[in-house]
Amino acid sequence: MSTAFLIAANTWTVFGIVMGVVAVVLAVLYFMGKKMQKKQAEAQEQIDSSKQVASILVIDKKKLKPKDSGLPEVALSQLPWYAKGQKLPIVKAKIGPQIMSLMCDAEVFEIIPVKKECKVALSGIYIAELKAVRGGKVPEKPAKVGALKRIRNNLMAKIKKAEAPKKKK
Fold first, then answer.
1. Radius of gyration of the chain, Cα coordinates, nearest whole angstrom
2. CA atoms in the 13 A half-sphere facing the CB of 54
3. Is residue 126 exposed (0-12), middle (13-18) or buried (19+ Cβ within 10 Å)?
4. How far apart are CA 58 and CA 121, in angstroms?
5. What is the pLDDT of residues 78-87, one digit of tens each?
6. Has this prediction a pTM greater than 0.70?
């Protein structure tokens, strides 16, 4: 046998093994995704069934790691392992006479106003929906700015700053 044939055979063998590993990884990811999707649908169904409308005064909102958020220990123990390292949207709010830290839906977190009284749909310590804002209408979700547009805006701001005439003292 020639060396060219052996090199070609080894190359195809390695390629076949790599493609097999990729196929296995994709299959595992597909089935895990379906399983996670079912869990998420069940959790959303549970949240929807236990919603209650409450009036809260939003004091502060931040994205914090769960251990720094001030959430109850019971809630922290029920978090999945992958969520313990992520930053979660946390809203500090006054509900009646009590100040509490609440978890918030990501979409609601973007539009909930700080230092305003709001009516929200609560499911335990989770803010699922913003119903109304006192003294105004519910703010709309801000338009998402794409990466290229953001870069262009930054460059334009730098150019304008550089072109601006410097004041003499």
1. 26
2. 20
3. middle
4. 14
5. 888 888 889 9
6. no
